[in-house]
Amino acid sequence: MTGVSLSKVSRVLSCKGKIGDSTRKKVLAAIDEFMFTPGVVMQKFEGLPKKIALLIPESGEYYRDDPSSSADIRALLNESKKSNDDIVILKIGKNESEENELINKLLIDNYDGVIISDPFVDNTIIEKIVQNNIPYVITNGIFPQFQYNYIDFDNINGLFQITDYLISRGHVKIAILAGPQNHSVTQNRMDGVVKAFQKNNIELPENILYGSFNLDDGYKNAKILLERKCDFTAILGFSDLISLGAMKAVKESGLRIPEDISIIGVDNIEYSKYSDPPLTTVDRNVDELAEILVKYLYDLTYNKGKIHSFNVFLKMNLVERESCRKIS
After folding, report:
1. Strand, coil or helix: what is 226?
2. pTM (2 decimals)?
């Protein structure tokens, strides 16, 4: 049935000798399906280490300059060590030929599963992974219109919550410093902002600038708003780094935080509680996310083809600090 020699089958069953992962999987799957009680052989197989690809955007700032993304990756690497799994970080290319090379690598190198983190709005790489029947989970950005496998923080409702909080404190003129426009997580967070403005019957602000999730772009974009003398009482940054960069620009302009301008962020990175003033933000439990991601990918790997799309969203919690004040 498998095209594998008797001696190789014997080595798989006795766990002796060197056998490739693809051969071992093929033999064990056939035994499990045709010869023994379903699940018995696979229970033995489930203890074997897995090779997982973590796909991230082809952008150095994703894991070098962004502490929240770095924390996500560290949490995943730590979680994988518990089961001796091997997570390899691969970058998502920006054109079709690079995407095809990545798919070929996943297939040729026999990756057991894929975690796609912070996918681009153009979701072609996901479609190719689905078409090639590679077990996968998407995180840090979803596509609500498509039935994919998602395990993510609830960015839409998280940003709805924090925007609604700002409005409840009297801030109806809010400047938005968003992330990269071509990243799905940015779109998810913007959807939450829009939802909050619609709920409060307030027009969406005109002061919306896009940039990277880093200090420099937070600083530069806040400077642009201040130099244009835009009318706003609060800045909502789509990451804590963006907001911390904005803090510097506001202080350099001679304005006070929060007396003149309130500032709020997203991610609750360690630095945010040490800023001056401490930054109001939204918390993400990255360790919990990593644990669930690895568990679900594990289930997908060993039940290939038997699980059809799932959605798991973790709550984001408001962390109130001194960077946001209530106005009349």
Report:
1. helix
2. 0.80
